[in-house]
């Protein structure tokens, strides 16, 4: 059974930093791409970043480029999202998602392409 568990969400002030974690189990980690999405109240879920576990290729949405960093620890089957220079508009529930890499298109990050999801973790950035 594929399982993804996010952690690390919190309330921080604008300009602050947070690191989210996504612990994965139930599948061959190296065969998958792990992504981060977020959903703010009243808005659609949007892609934030992904990492191909096998070759390490990375994608960022324009809105987080240069502020967020995705990384992985293969030994722990965990993906991280380091978020810096946080803005109030980064406030959302953050979800990690996984899909077998061969099913995905490079440079495309949309929710319907990912079949496994975590429960989400709340990030609130106060102004």
Keywords:
single chain; mainly beta; seven-stranded mixed sheet; 11 strands; 0% helix
How would you describe this structure to a colleague?
By secondary structure, the chain is mainly β. Helices cover 0% and strands 50% of the residues. The protein is built from no helices and eleven strands. It has strands at residues 3-7, 11-13, 18-25, 32-39, 46-52, 58-60, 68-73, 78-83, 92-100, 116-117, 121-126. Strands 2, 4, 5, 6, 9, 10 and 11 form a seven-stranded mixed beta sheet that branches. It has a four-stranded antiparallel beta sheet with strand order 1-3-8-7, with no helix packed on it. It is globular.
Number of helices: 0
Mean pLDDT figure = 97
Find the structural class using helix and strand composition: mainly beta
Portion in strands: over 45%
What is the element string, with H for helices and E for strands?
EEEEEEEEEEE
Distance, first to last CA: 40 Å
Low-confidence stretches: none
> Which percent bin holds the helix content?
under 10%
- Tell me the overall shape: globular
Q: Using the CA coordinates, give the radius of gyration.
A: 13 Å
Oligomer: single chain
Count of strand segments: 11
- Tell me about the largest β-sheet: 7 strands, mixed
Task: Please outline what is shown here.
The protein has 127 residues and is an all-beta fold. Helices cover 0% and strands 50% of the residues. The strands form two sheets. Strands 2, 4, 5, 6, 9, 10 and 11 form a seven-stranded mixed sheet that branches. Strands 1-3-8-7 form a four-stranded antiparallel sheet, with no helix packed on it.
């Amino acid at each position: 059974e594929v399982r993804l568990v996010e952690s690390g969400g919190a309330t921080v002030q604008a300009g602050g930093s947070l690191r989210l974690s996504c612990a994965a189990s139930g599948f061959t980690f190296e065969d998958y791409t792990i992504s981060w999405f977020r959903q703010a109240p009243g808005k659609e879920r949007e892609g934030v970043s992904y990492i191909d576990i096998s070759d390490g290729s990375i994608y960022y949405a324009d809105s987080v480029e240069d502020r967020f960093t995705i990384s992985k620890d293969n030994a722990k089957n965990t993906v991280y999202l380091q978020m810096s220079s946080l803005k109030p508009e980064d406030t959302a529930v953050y979800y990690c998602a996984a899909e077998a890499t061969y099913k995905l298109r490079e440079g495309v990050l949309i929710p319907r392409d990912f079949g496994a999801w975590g429960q989400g973790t709340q990030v609130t950035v106060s102004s």
